[in-house]
Amino acid sequence: MKRSLIILCALVAGYASAKTLKGSPEERKLVEQNCVLCHSLDYIEMVAPLTPQGWEATVKKMVNVFKAPVSPEDQKKILEYLNKYYTGR
Ligand code: HEC
Predict the structure, then answer these.
(1) Cα separation, 63 vs 67, whole angstroms
(2) Ligand 1 pocket: which of 20, 33, 58 to mutate (most atoms <8 Å of CB)?
(3) What is the pTM of this model?
(4) What backbone torsions phi and psi does residue 40 show, to the nearest 5 degrees?
(5) Low-confidence ranges of the chain (pLDDT < 50)
(6) Nearest CA to 78 among 68, 89, 67, 88?
(7) Are 86 and 50 spatial neighbours (Cβ–Cβ below 8 Å)?
(8) How many Å from the N-terminal Cα to the C-terminal Cα in the chain?
(9) What is the CATH T-level fold of the domain 22-85, as seen in this structure?
């Protein structure tokens, strides 16, 4: 009984934290891996919606100015993700 309660709590906690950003876990993965090193992912929701140009400038700034270690392919995928879910329409 106690054990199943613990498992239930872990599931609920996992679900709650997985709700932070939009999209499927696979889609969020790159952002979750690359964009939490220096600040929380709330920054994304805080500035959204941005235009595709705005996101490109933001990601470039993270990489060029703040030295975020994100490969060019990953930057492209991250921009696709941001433009899918966090662009002004
Ligand atoms: C190497 C550290 C680092 C990494 C990694 C990083 N950032 Fe940042 N980010 C910063 C700093 C520093 C700021 C400015 C913080 C402040 O002004 O308080 C910032 C600010 C931001 C902001 C706020 C708006 C702005 O333009 O300042 C957004 C949005 C943002 N980051 C998105 C991202 C995204 C998306 C990623 C992943 C691609 C990312 N960051 C990865 C360091 C980083």
Answers:
(1) 5
(2) 58
(3) 0.84
(4) -80, 160
(5) 9, 16, 18-19
(6) 68
(7) yes
(8) 49
(9) Cytochrome Bc1 Complex; Chain D, domain 2 (1.10.760)
